[in-house]
Design brief:
Layout lengths: L1 H64 L9 E9 L8 E8 L11 E6 L5 E7 L3 E8 L5 E11 L2 E12 L2 E5 L10 E6 L3 E6 L17 E8 L5 E5 L3 E4 L10 E9 L2 E8 L11 E2 L1
Antiparallel strand pairs: 1-2, 2-3, 3-4, 5-6, 6-7, 7-8, 9-10, 10-11, 11-12, 13-14, 14-15, 15-16
Length: about 290
């Protein structure tokens, strides 16, 4: 009987040792896996940074060769993304850069957009000037992306917005002509989501020497939706608009300028302020 109890005690002790050993091995594997994942993330970050530097050098060399900048320090990498810009499964990269050390006459927010092949070759680039330059992408039904560029310039407090649509044709940026991209002097476009353009008029007052915007007369007059076939189609025709004067007490964040309602939905166009009225002029919609 005593031998049986002793055997059970020894067996229990051995099983306990095995459990402890297994737990330590499991924890060790988990820690090693965690360190491996950290190393992989580090390698990924390093590769991303190397790619950014490679793209920046390629664009800088081309701009220096064409005497558009003086040194590689005159451009700053902003972001890049993968996409099919010329054809389906082309897997190119679109990179966007900010141009630094430029004269005010060229705009306060000059940017460069460049497209690179899957192998990393610089295919083409576009230099874009303005005080506020923004990019918007529209999917085509063939699987490629179109790129719309909105550029707002300010002269003596008067804003002017221009639009341009680009597509990569082979290995070059091709500007697509559309009537809806031609904006009168008092018209602006706000972007809603990834497929809708909201057109609104922001007329100037009758003051000759120092005209200001007549916010009460603002009007949303057209809403266009991307049809996926390279064109925009009118989305709503019956639009009721209500506009208000800006509330100067809330210029630190934003104020609603204009909104329109159709069906059960409403769109608001707001102007934001980040402390520099001439810079924060991009209209937004939600």
């Amino acid at each position: 009987m005593k031998k049986g109890i002793g055997f059970l005690l020894i067996l229990g002790f051995v099983i306990g040792l095995l459990k402890v050993s297994y737990a330590e091995e499991k924890d060790g594997n988990r820690a090693a896996g965690s360190r491996s994942n950290q190393r992989m993330r580090g390698y990924s970050d390093l590769m991303q940074k190397d790619l950014e530097n490679y793209f920046s050098d390629a664009v800088a060399k081309e701009l220096i060769r064409e005497k558009k900048i003086h040194t590689a320090n005159d451009i700053q990498f902003l972001y890049m993304e993968k996409g099919d810009f010329s054809k389906t499964t082309s897997e190119e990269r679109l990179a966007v850069f900010s141009v630094l050390n430029t004269p005010h006459t060229g705009g306060l927010d000059q940017k460069i957009m460049a497209v690179f092949s899957k192998e990393g070759k610089l295919l083409d680039y576009q230099a874009l000037a303005g005080d506020d330059v923004a990019f918007y992408e529209f999917w085509h039904q063939d699987g490629t992306k179109y790129i719309m560029v909105s550029s707002i310039s300010v002269y003596q407090g008067i804003e002017k917005q221009t639009l341009a649509m680009y597509h990569v044709n082979g290995s070059n940026f091709e500007e697509i002509s559309m009537d809806c991209l031609e904006l009168p002097d008092d018209s602006f476009v706000a972007f809603a989501g990834n497929d809708t353009l909201i057109y609104y008029k922001k007329p100037l007052s009758d003051r000759v020497e120092a005209p200001t915007y007549a916010y009460k007369d603002m009007k949303i007059y057209m809403i266009l939706k991307w049809n996926g076939k390279g064109q925009f189609a009118e989305e709503y025709k019956d639009i009721k608009t209500a506009c208000v004067l800006p509330d100067r007490q809330h210029t630190r964040c934003f104020y609603i300028l204009c909104h329109c309602c159709f069906s059960a939905s409403c769109i608001f166009i707001a102007r934001t302020f980040n402390g520099s009225p001439n810079k924060v002029i991009k209209p937004s919609a939600s």
